[in-house]
Design goal:
Elements (H helix, E strand, L loop, with lengths): L4 E5 L2 H13 L4 E5 L14 E5 L7 H17 L4 E5 L12 H12 L4 E4 L7 E4 L2 E4 L2 E2 L18 H6 L6 E4 L1 H5 L2 H13 L4 E4 L4 H10 L5 E4 L28 E6 L4 H12 L4 E3 L2 H5 L4 H12 L5 E4 L4 H11 L1 H21 L2 E7 L1 H11 L3 E9 L2 E7 L5 E7 L8 H28 L1
Parallel strand pairs: 1-3, 1-4, 2-3, 4-11, 5-10, 5-11, 9-10, 12-14, 12-15, 13-14, 15-18
Antiparallel strand pairs: 2-16, 6-7, 7-8, 16-17, 17-18
């Protein structure tokens, strides 16, 4: 049997975010790193496959080409519905890439209509009257207005997406969504007759996403943040089950690599530092000056890994980031940090790290590629949108890894992540004990 749902994510943390919600709703999920060759062996024992691309900030033409390759593979694997996943803050470059990729997928699939909603209420992302809110403020008033690569200064998603697409963009507002799946389908029919290609959909609660999920059953393509994923598995009869999130036992040293400059990750770094835990700060200016920052970080880590998780970070406040970008250039500074942190992650694994937290979408992409990971099995949730995953290193050794979007997670995320992994092991042990008791009763 082919997979039921085929997903294309525009970055690595977004992919695990989406996969996490599918697992919570009962699907067994495999996340692939980039696009396998068409005809390659299908993932074993998976109801959904998420292909993680690194296309959010690439030129639109490259994002489109990568997404179409992913679509081709997923369709060859038998995917019944395609899900294009972007960030819950709807961020992309001015030229796209959400609009261009959406329209390219529509053309390739042969559909004239799809929906779009980045809503994820569990993480404070809601859409009302077509406007995106982050917590209690509009997107344009949130920390995303300072993002170094994809600053978001317009909260009107109809306007944002309309500037990126040739097809008209419409709205399915909260009054329609609240009326239920049938009302949503009727609104879709009217919008299609009016020539609308994509409709922004309001959602201020999980119930809204569940109603939307039921309404888009059978739609060839949906586009959304990760929130809509909670409403799709039921269309195939899946229900929440702890077994969908089981991972193999974990071991080895623990470390954190953080390259995100988001407000949330800044807070998490500061909370970790306040606890007096071992941490090494990566300075882009020292990298640019030719210093062996990677060697320095790994030497520090080798000394402190026995104490517990070690943090290697380049996270800074927006003012400091702007200063570095002014000296080195925004793209150059970002690439320097990504390459450095990716090499640090490789070194940490060589030092015996087998439980690794990575913070930041671009950082996660660089680290996963540097480690040579080709697929992830999705496990238990740490915080909304962030699960633990299990992977095999190129030499076959197991690695437990979590890829955290910069915007996600509570202040104590770095320490809570490892506690969650330990509790998952305890829960699995209890489950195995219960099975054994049942077998011997």
């Amino acid at each position: 049997m082919g997979i039921r749902l085929g997903c294309i994510a525009d970055d690595f943390t977004g992919a695990t975010d989406l996969a996490n919600n599918l697992v919570r709703a009962g699907m067994r999920v495999v996340q692939l790193i980039d696009v396998p060759p068409v005809g390659a062996e299908q993932p074993v024992d998976a109801d959904a496959v998420v292909i993680a691309l690194k296309s959010r900030t690439t030129p639109a033409s490259e994002a489109v080409a990568a997404s179409l390759r992913a679509l081709e593979w997923l369709r060859s694997a038998g995917a019944e519905q395609i899900y294009f996943k972007y960030c819950s803050t709807f961020d992309s470059t001015q030229a796209g890439n959400i609009g261009p990729v959406t329209e390219a997928l529509m053309d390739a699939i042969g559909t004239d209509f799809t929906v779009a909603t980045p809503a994820f209420p569990d993480n404070g992302r809601t859409v009302f009257k077509g406007h995106l809110f982050v917590g209690d403020v509009l997107l344009s008033e949130s920390g995303m207005r300072h993002h170094p690569l994809t600053p978001m200064t317009d909260s009107n998603l109809v306007s944002v997406l309309g500037a990126q697409t040739a097809r008209p963009v419409g709205l399915i507002d909260h009054t329609v969504v609240a009326a239920g799946a049938e009302a949503i389908r009727e609104r879709v029919d009217r919008l299609r007759k009016e020539g609308v290609g994509t409709a922004i959909v309001d959602a201020v609660s999980n119930d809204d996403l569940l109603r939307l999920g039921a309404a888009v059953k059978g739609l060839p393509l949906v586009t959304a943040g990760s929130g809509l994923a909670i409403g799709l598995p039921a269309n195939w009869g899946f229900e929440s089950s702890p077994s969908a999130a089981q991972l193999p036992p974990h071991g080895g040293q623990r470390a954190i690599v953080s390259g995100s400059v988001s407000t949330a990750t800044n807070g998490q770094v500061q909370e970790f530092l306040r606890g007096g835990r071992p941490a090494f700060s990566v300075d882009p200016l020292r990298i640019a000056a030719g210093e062996d920052v990677v060697g320095q970080a790994l030497s520090y880590a080798a000394t402190h890994l026995p104490e517990g998780p070690v943090l290697v970070y380049s996270t800074e406040a927006p003012e400091a980031v702007k200063d570095v970008q002014g000296r080195l250039g925004a793209a150059e500074a970002g690439e320097l940090v990504e390459r450095t942190l990716a090499r640090v992650a490789q070194g940490l694994v060589e030092l015996g790290v087998r439980q690794l937290v990575v913070a930041g979408g671009e950082t996660s992409g660089a680290v996963v590629q540097a480690l040579g990971l080709t697929g992830l099995r999705i496990g238990p949730q740490i915080d909304p949108g962030v699960p633990w995953c299990a992977a095999a290193l190129p030499d076959g050794d197991p690695l437990h890894i979590t890829l955290k979007s910069g915007n996600f997670g509570g202040p104590d995320f770095f320490t809570a992540a490892f506690a969650r992994l330990d509790s998952a092991r305890l829960g699995l042990a209890c489950l195995d004990s219960a099975r054994l008791d049942g077998e011997t009763a």
